[in-house]
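Hi team,

As requested, here is the filled-out complex form for the alpha-L-arabinofuranose run. I kept the field names the same as last time so the parser does not choke. Let me know if anything looks off before we queue the next batch.

— J.
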Amino acid sequence: MNIIKHSLAVLGMIAAPAFAASQVSISIDAGKPGPVINKYVYGQFAEHLGTGVYEGMYVGPKSTIPNTRGWRNDVVGALKELHVPLVRWPGGCFADTYHWRDGIGPQDKRPRNVNGDSVDEFNAVGTHEFFDLIDMLGADAYVNGNVGTGTVQEMADWLEYMTADGGSPLSRLRAQNGHEKPFKVAYFGIGNELWGCGGNMKPEYYANLYRNYETFLRAPANSRPKMIASGGDTTWTDILSKELKGRTVGISVHQYTIAGATWEDKGKDLGFKEDQWISTLANTLKMDQIIKDHLAILDKHDPEKKIGLMVDEWGTWYDEKGAKSALSQQNSLRDALVAALNFHIFHAHAERVPMTTIAQMVNVLQAMILTDKEKMVLTPTYYTFQMYVPFQDAKSLPLAIKDNTSYTLGTTTIPGVSASAARAKDGKVYLALVNTDPSKAVDIAVDVAGIKVKGAAGKVLTSAAMDAHNTFQNPQAIKPAPFSARAAGGELSIKVPAKAVMVLALEE
Ligand code: AHR
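And here is what came back:
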């Protein structure tokens, strides 16, 4: 039938647009699982910045907002649904001026100071409170130390305070402060953005400093965190991967997505036109090449693949004009697609990208949750993270897209469909799809080698407007809807709506 249609169209006997509805084909090989997608790829970043921690998550035990030991019950409850695997804290640039001793002991005796650029820091959230949050979320901790204005001794003391298992003066202090048992620190970051807010250093200088710090970061062998070196551009990765072999499990990279052409004009969070829809998605897709560039260097210096690339800050960053608090921005359907496209890129590099933390968890940049006093709203990015939970610790599956559509506006063209598949821990095969085109639905035929597919069911996130978003007045404006598809002869036919993120569990 299609052949006849095609021939008639070529002969000009039927309108060519009918042919534009041609199918995209996706082949998945369920019989050849690839690397595991580390659950830490779905990590989050919570920095003392704006209302990211205070107000957004921590309101104090005396607040009228329902809380558990100061942490908002509504926010913690919502975050639990995301199975947050890892939280990076306390910064960011904030970490570069943070002195951990300010944040221990009785809260009313803690100093009030200005930390970072602008936070009036009253230190109510310190080490113990952070680990309380971590426990409530069932997450692991990624603590970021202060190289910028700290000392080797201060950092070594902090690690001892957190991890020593009794007997040492600092572990006794921890016990006096209410936590007898050591805290478990999964990752420890030695500094942040040393090329900028962390001290404007050269990579060679930081590499030496790192070696110095790492030498004295002592902890019992079974509880020593994995150490992360703070990276920058590919020059940094080059130098750090040569100099820090055997001393780090990861080099970090920060990569933000803007909608506009420059950092001075990053574009608006809402009310943008289609040019900034496509530019945002095109910019975020650059993550793939950026990862490839860094991995090419790692492959050269670390062929044993002992060092991972940790994308520990990523997400959208729009113009700050009119923001309610520092770096707060609204979050729309466009951000949901940004998150999903990045997940697909991270999955494709699962072997070498074992951890990422989106910036940030609440109220800051590409947040999961926005708050206003006692109100809380879940963002489209939150829903994307929720839909992708099955991909945590799932085995990636080879996937090929044939006859992909492309989406063009002006001089920019990006792939129409992005897809990723994995066999999850529940035994099911999951397929995630993104249609980047804001106006056209796309028909996809899915063929899965190794299993007989009967159908698929899951969720789709889409809306009529490119900037569809939830507000405190209308918190349910955009949320995922159920979606299912049937298979015929083992082949699934899926129509993905325009501008949509979809995650389906295949029924065998
Ligand atoms: O996430 C906001 C800031 O962006 C972080 O503090 C810093 O590390 C980066 O420049």
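Two things worth flagging: The first strand starts at residue 24 and ends at 29. Residues 47, 91-93, 192-193, 254, 313, 359-360, 365 surround alpha-L-arabinofuranose (CB under 6 Å).

Thanks,
J.
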